[in-house]
Amino acid sequence: MRAVIPYKKENAKSRLSSVLDLHEREEFVELMLKDVFNTLRSAGIENIDVLTTSRASIAPDLDVGIIENEKGLNEAINQYLASIDEPVLIAMADLPLLAPCQVMDITEKQTDVVIVPGKGGGTNIIRIMQPSRFHVKYYGSSFLNHYAIAQECGMSVHVYDSFRASTDIDEPQDLVELLVHGSGLAKEYIKERFSMRSGKGRVAILSDTCRIASE
Amino acid sequence: MRAVIPYKKENAKSRLSSVLDLHEREEFVELMLKDVFNTLRSAGIENIDVLTTSRASIAPDLDVGIIENEKGLNEAINQYLASIDEPVLIAMADLPLLAPCQVMDITEKQTDVVIVPGKGGGTNIIRIMQPSRFHVKYYGSSFLNHYAIAQECGMSVHVYDSFRASTDIDEPQDLVELLVHGSGLAKEYIKERFSMRSGKGRVAILSDTCRIASE
């Protein structure tokens, strides 16, 4: 099993700009990438590639294959899928709650495809046994896209049900899940900058410099 | 195993008032209650109670025991827990993605307590083998509260990891998860009133009467 993590650092996570400045967002996404890498490696995946538009954005000490591709996300991943002939797991770089046990669970499923939904109709992880038979279509309701693509290709699909694997970090409110349930590098980074504000409803984050998180 | 569903219909889900009027919200929560009831019953739980401030708010055809209690959520549930001497599953009434397989999974865990986190630090389900040894503390970061309470009581705890069981419906954005992943009465109700609007980020809901859903 091979893994690929699509990763973009420059001006990443713009929807977090109400709570993290540009430099902080770029530091944060780098730590999330390391968390995802550590989880995949702890789950026993040796060959981990990072698909990026800029080689320089990858920390030199990260034991990954770097695939540089200027093309858009879908085109770059589909070119990657066409270039390999072993089972592959595509994991997004913003899954700091993902744990090794979920990765092992996902890789052991017998179906042709395993899809882990993301928040708001997205896709956090796809595991494909025969990459050449599949193509990705991220953005919009990508979960429904990928489910339909697998069915059109006559591939069996398992939708993997995990709160941790389905928690991607895109918006300020997502940082609460990291503070409550996280334990890695990205969690520590956010813990140093935010605290939690409890009320009757959902917990909100409170920036330590009193920049109240507005969603 | 007994189940109890805390349920309040009057002016429910005020945070959905930007997309559903009062009458719609009350219809919607009633359908979500039926979805949760159907799931618990399909999972083999015979004795299902509804803990409510108003008996009249429960549909007469729902095969449940009705426990009327004017007190606040925590006090009412703690009184309930003190009154029963069998394992109990407390399920919130706004879990329309919950499936029977998750309920069976949760009831079969061997730990003293099983906690299913909700979004934003909440608690969606607690299963307690010995109710008299436990007490609840909902609101705020209730997941961390309940985890600490179990530990203080020397009770073993399992945190159950499920995207479906952890998806509670409180805010407009949550309705997207229902449209993408749901299949019950509440899903149909929302499907009749909203469509999905795709962009590069997460899918948003679009009211069919063009009341754009604002979070």
Automatic annotation (TrEMBL), chains A, B:
Sorted alphabetically, which SUPFAM superfamilies does this protein's record hold? Nucleotide-diphospho-sugar transferases (SSF53448)
- MF term (GO), any: GTP binding
Q: Which UniProt keywords apply?
A: GTP-binding, Nucleotide-binding, Nucleotidyltransferase, Transferase
* Keyword check for GTP-binding: yes
Q: Which GO terms describe its biological process?
A: F420-0 metabolic process
Source superkingdom: Archaea
Q: What class of enzyme is it?
A: transferase
Q: Which Gene3D superfamilies match?
A: 6.10.140.50, Spore Coat Polysaccharide Biosynthesis Protein SpsA, Chain A (3.90.550.10)
Q: What Enzyme Commission number(s) does the record list for this chain?
A: 2.7.7.68
| Functional pathway | Cofactor biosynthesis; coenzyme F420 biosynthesis
Does this entry carry the keyword Nucleotidyltransferase? yes
Provide the catalytic activity annotation. Answer: (2S)-2-phospholactate + GTP + H(+) = (2S)-lactyl-2-diphospho-5'-guanosine + diphosphate
Q: Relate the assembly described in the record.
A: Homodimer.
Sum up the protein's function in the record's words: Guanylyltransferase that catalyzes the activation of (2S)-2-phospholactate (2-PL) as (2S)-lactyl-2-diphospho-5'-guanosine, via the condensation of 2-PL with GTP. It is involved in the biosynthesis of coenzyme F420, a hydride carrier cofactor.
NCBIfam families given in the database record = F420_cofC
Q: Which family does it belong to?
A: Belongs to the CofC family.
The protein's name is 2-phospho-L-lactate guanylyltransferase
Q: Which organism is it from?
A: Methanosalsum zhilinae (strain DSM 4017 / NBRC 107636 / OCM 62 / WeN5) (Methanohalophilus zhilinae)
Q: Which gene encodes it?
A: cofC
